[in-house]
Design goal:
Layout (H helix, E strand, L loop, with lengths): L9 H7 L3 H7 L12 H8 L3 H17 L12 H34 L5 H36 L3 H11 L2 H18 L11 H28 L4
Helix pairs in contact: 5-6, 5-9, 6-7, 6-8, 8-9
Length: about 230
């Protein structure tokens, strides 16, 4: 591919050009849960300058290609390799980060909640997200991913139906978790700490931004690559 058009979806773009996720996050363009809509529709709905965004996207893509990056075709990568990457990269990150970051969220709520009332809502939203993602990752690793690996070696309709049943509401879970992160971004002013923020406050916001970025990549891989191939 040499150029993207407004007919491409954000998910298609990120599959080919992973760095596009940075541009989409800056422009508040969903490339994970709602990433299956053509960019042109998103531009019209959000009143975004199509020419400016597509120019920036394609110029960035051309520069990226000149750096001789390897373009990985995720649609041909073995399913088991995709699953192992998701587990060892994204799931492992969540297992380590969610409890650690939760302590920071609780601390700034306790210390600064009186002067910054939105921290109460942040505390509630974060803990909802934490519980949802912990349950979600366990369900995938114990019920869904083993079936997909089995299907890769022994594809049959019966096993595919079992996967669909086990998969159940996983994509709905993704939507719910994505919406929580979008809400967190809104109430934290795009993860911009206030002027009087202490170091803990600033660290919390920086780590929340990183959590959002990793989770959106995680959801994108599952929704638009792994699950779609089934």
């Amino acid at each position: 591919m040499t150029e993207f058009t407004a007919e491409h979806t954000p998910a298609e773009v990120v599959k080919v050009f992973p760095k596009a996720s940075d541009l989409f996050k800056q422009r508040r363009i969903d490339f994970c849960c709602g990433g299956d809509r053509p960019l042109g529709e998103v531009f019209k709905e959000r009143n975004i300058d199509e020419v400016a965004v597509m120019d920036e996207l394609n110029h960035s893509f051309q520069d990226w290609q000149k750096e001789d990056h390897e373009v990985v075709d995720l649609d041909t990568k073995p399913l088991s390799e995709l699953i192992d990457h998701i587990v060892h990269s994204h799931h492992a990150y969540l297992y380590e980060e969610l409890p650690a970051l939760g302590k920071f969220v609780s601390k700034i709520f306790r210390v600064h909640g009186k002067n910054h009332p939105h921290l109460k809502e942040l505390h509630r939203l974060y803990n909802d997200f934490k519980v949802d993602m912990e349950e979600h990752t366990v369900n995938e690793e114990e019920n869904v991913f083993p079936l997909i690996k089995e299907y890769e070696h022994n594809p049959n309709e019966e096993l595919l139906e079992r996967i669909k049943t086990a998969n159940g509401g996983l994509e709905d879970d993704h939507d719910a978790s994505g919406n929580i992160l979008k809400h967190i971004r809104e109430i934290t002013n795009g993860f911009q700490p206030p002027r009087d923020a202490c170091n803990s406050y600033r660290i919390t916001y920086a780590r929340l931004a990183e959590l959002e970025s990793d989770t959106f990549q995680h959801i994108h891989l599952e929704n638009h690559v792994l699950f779609k191939r089934l």
